[in-house]
Design goal:
This protein is of the alpha/beta class and 319 residues long. It is built from 9 helices and 15 strands. The protein has an 8-stranded mixed β-sheet. Helix 3 packs parallel to helix 4 (105-112). The two termini are 27 Å apart. It binds NADP nicotinamide-adenine-dinucleotide phosphate (NAP). NADP nicotinamide-adenine-dinucleotide phosphate binds next to strand 6, strand 7, strand 8, helix 8 and helix 9.
Length: 319
């Protein structure tokens, strides 16, 4: 399942509206097929993996990060049917598919055909891996990551607005890798005017992964090469976007937090002090300190050259 989860990452940010699934087929301890959801959502991971495994899928075990689909589509057959036809003996899955067209029916169809099904293997990792699809299914909007690059004293720019560069090359390369995993990147009008950001992916081999560029502004006219939205909630209307990276600045970050639209924070912290600079955030709508607690959990921390990256996820226990 670890290998299937790693393969699933290859599709992240490129498969909407479909989930980025990974799949591995193993026969007698040997990997005979590997696959992941392709750009645009088809072929599905299982179809690609079965094509590679060929006749060796018979009697094998398929590890898949999401329940195989049960629905026929004009774009391809149901993966549960493909697995049955190929004669796999066992399916190990991480998550049940919340899509109403499958939602347990994929597993039921496999079991009815005599295939052993093991559920919920490494489910938390799969949830993180398919956060875009799952957020779209549950909340009807993309998964939102907020990127902040700050000094030790929490500034995102000098008082005059200059912010190039706060972090070093390793942190910036990591931020570019994150861009490649999102269908869209958003900045505010203030950042657009101050930095004229290109928002492309400047990493060797990944240059073609330029995400959609989105500007948050209530006043901007149409800008060539940009999609303009007038409110944070409008991210839900962006076509084929299940992951969006919000890159600032302070007003935009605060607006997304105030609307409780941020699911994940990437905090890149440089070992510098600015003093009297632009704070990372403005008012985010809290009226007492207790409301600030219990919202964010740290899920990763690492050193990137001189800088520190911490990753936080929104705790949504109310569900
Ligand atoms: N270190 C970092 O990570 C980082 C990242 C990005 C930017 N920066 C720095 O941050 C500074 C810019 O930040 P900023 O706070 O001045 O500007 P900003 O957040 O980039 O943009 C502010 C503009 O966004 C629009 N906006 C904000 N909230 C909105 C809402 N709820 N609905 C509709 N539109 C909304 C408004 O545009 P309209 O007035 O057109 O409606 C507003 O004037 C620059 O100095 C930049 O270099 C730092």
């Amino acid at each position: 399942m670890g290998a299937a989860l790693a393969l699933a990452e290859r599709g992240r940010g490129r498969t909407a509206p479909n989930p980025n699934v990974g799949c591995v087929i193993v026969l007698e301890g040997r990997v005979v097929g590997r696959g992941w959801t392709q750009v645009g959502g088809r072929p599905h991971a299982e179809a690609m993996t079965l094509a590679e495994a060929g006749a060796e899928a018979r009697g094998a075990t398929a590890y898949v990060t999401l329940e195989p689909c049960a629905h026929q589509s004009p774009r391809g057959p149901a993966c549960s049917d493909l697995l049955i036809e190929a004669g796999v003996a066992r399916v190990v899955a991480a998550l049940e598919d919340p899509d109403a067209r499958t939602a347990g029916q994929g597993f039921a169809r496999l079991e009815a055909a005599g295939i052993a099904v093991t559920r919920s293997v490494r489910a938390n990792e799969a949830r993180r891996s398919m956060a875009g699809f799952l957020t779209r299914q549950a909340l009807g909007r993309p998964h939102v990551t907020l990127k902040l690059a700050t000094s030790l004293d929490g500034c995102i720019a000098m008082a005059d607005g200059s912010s190039r560069w706060i972090t070093g090359p390793q942190a910036r390369a990591h931020a570019h890798l994150e861009r490649s995993r999102h269908e869209a990147i958003l900045v505010g009008r203030g950042t657009y005017d101050a930095d004229a950001p290109r928002l492309d992916v400047r990493l060797p081999g990944l240059e073609a992964r330029g995400p959609m560029r989105v500007l948050l502004s209530s006043t901007a006219e149409d800008l060539p090469g940009w999609t303009v939205i007038a409110a944070p909630q409008n991210v839900a209307t962006l076509p084929r976007v299940d992951h969006i990276l919000v890159e600032g600045g302070a007003a935009v970050a605060s607006a997304f937090l105030a609307a409780d639209l941020v699911d994940r924070i990437l905090l890149y912290r440089a070992p510098i002090l600015i003093g009297g600079g632009k704070p990372a955030l403005r008012d985010i709508g809290l009226t007492d300190l207790a409301q600030a607690h219990g919202r964010w959990a740290i899920v990763d921390a690492r050193q990137l050259g001189m800088d520190r990256l911490e990753v936080y996820e929104r705790e949504r226990n109310e569900a």
